[in-house]
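user: can you give me the structure for this one chain? tokens are fine.
assistant: on it. calling the predictor now.
[tool input]
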Amino acid sequence: MDRLDDAVPLLELLCAADEVRVPGELESSGPHENAPDAVVDRYVVDGGPLLLTVWRGRLHEVIYQTPAESEQDAARRNDRLFAHYGQGDGWTEILDNGFGKTYRRTDQRRYALWSYAMDITTFGTMEFHQVKW
């Protein structure tokens, strides 16, 4: 039997917007609040919402709002996500603010945020990160 942490879709950052395939239902689409030329699509997938940000015609950010049922399930899901978005590179923890942790991939091209308070995980490109903040 598949566990929920194995069910969240893995996407490819920087793929062309028309190549993004999400196994879920599109719930809404609108401009990014900090980057008006970016679009955020909200999908409903197994486990909760998935937010995809397309900027300059490419996927630049994926937010998994898919909280796990246990700490063990969250750890397994995050191991899977960090391995996928790491693409063979490791991650360095940059900050723990008491609410969540910020990471940079060792090549400095990707970032990750994990809110352990809400169990939401974000992966994105540093190029977009600089624009949205």
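assistant: here you go. The chain has three helices and eight strands. The chain has a mean pLDDT of 92.
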